[in-house]
Structures are given as structure tokens and as C-alpha cells.
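dumping this here before i forget
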Amino acid sequence: MTIDAHVHIWEAGSLQTQWMEKPPYQGDPKWEPLRATFRPADLEALMGASGVDGAVLVEAVDDLEETEALLAICRQNAWVSGVVGWLPLTDMDALEAALERFSTAPALVGMRHLINTEPDPDWVLQESVVAGLKRLAQAGLSFDFVGITTEHLERLPRLADACPDLTIVLDHLNCPPIADGAFQPWADLLAAAATRANVVAKISGLEMCSRWGDWTSEDWRPYADHALSCFGADRVMLGSNWPVATLSGRYEEIWAAHRAWLSALSASEQADIASGTAGRVYAHRAT
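structure:
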């Protein structure tokens, strides 16, 4: 079984594409192809052709309306393994209201906030956010950490220490410097994050960190190998980052690259990384 642990679904011109209106994406024409509609049926066809059995829908805008929209897609499509939506972390009253609102939605398995668009890398460490994340852990939800800078990765161990009961999923390996052929300081910072048992690594989005449209699975191998050596197979999962990934590679190319890397691993490692880790981390909650 294979689970794609990171996909998006959105309608052109909707609030779901508003992330492109914020720095560092605002005004950059290379993101224009994503101002389109990407439907569940489009993804389902790609998954079927690539041998992917299920997918986790991940939020693209910090708004409860999208959480509702993703849960609706989940109800209509059996291949959706779970939803990582958005919840208001900085306001405990609003967070409690949102948790109550979604208390009968077991498919809501985690949440994410676009910390990559917050000007202050310390946003995630502020007292109100940490309190909200602790409440998230109590509710049985995980937190996707979408870091893209060295400053983000530096703060991950501190966040993990502040919220020891919270499972934190590091999206896209914090965008390693693949295009530059570099390894540090990313490698040491990733290793430091991996020393926290409540942090899990998601190997996804590597096509966006590579030379766009000019990469092979061998470009990714050192970074994926390092993640595996740091975290172990039971704390590593795979994702496509579709449709953002379409700027740099086709869905089938991404999964071919993932499988080329997996092929050198043991059967138990392959099972954990392909579906086991995602299945455990993003397990449906009881209601």
C-alpha cells in the first residue's frame, strides 16, 4: 500500500490560492500556472496510474472555510486518508470553538499554519501558539511544520521540546538545498530535529528544492538517505506536493523517484515509509 501524505485540492480564484498573494510568492510569475483548478478527479486519475492508494489533503490557506471544503472532499472520495486542515492557534476561545465544530469529523487528523509566510520565524514559538499546539495534542491532532528557511529548522527542536506530547510533521524536509548541491547547515539542523522523538519527517516537495524540471532521483538520494538515517523508517513518510509539484515535475515522475529510492531499502523499511508512518501519524480520531 502507498499513501501520498501531501496533496492539495483547490479552485482557481478561491481563497485557497491566496497564499500566492503573500511574500515570498507575491508578484512572482513562476507561480502563475498554479492559478488554476485542481480537482479530486484529476488527482485520483494520477494516483491510479502511479499505484498510489490513498492521499492526505493538506491546507493551503489559513482559514476554517478551507478546512470545511477539504472535509467535504474527504466525505465524497474514499481514497482520502485524512485531512490536515487549519485551526486558529493564537486565540484559545476560537480554537476551542473550532475543535467543537469539527468534533464529529474523524477525518480531520492534523492541522497546519503557513509559518512559511509569517515574517517572524519566531511566530511558532510565541506563548499563545505553543498553548494552542498543546491543546491540539490533547485533541489527538498532529501539526504540520512547513518550514522553508534555516531559521525555521533551527526553531523546530525548541518547539518539539515545548510541546512534547504533540506529533510534529516536518513538511518537505524543510526544503534542503538540492539545487545548489549543498548539504550544510541543513543536514546538521535536520539531525538535531530528529533527536526529538515527537518529530516526523515528510519527504515531499523535493522537486521544488531541485533545479526546476531538471532533476533525477539521484539528485534527491543523499538528502533522503540522510533523513532516513536521522529519523528511521518509522518516522519517515512520502508525499508528492501535488499540484505545486507540477511546476517542476509530473506526478508520475515524482513517484518514480520515490520508488527508485525505496527499492534499495528493506521490505519493512519500504512498508513503513510508503504507508505505515503516514497511517500511524494521520490515523482517524475517535468521535
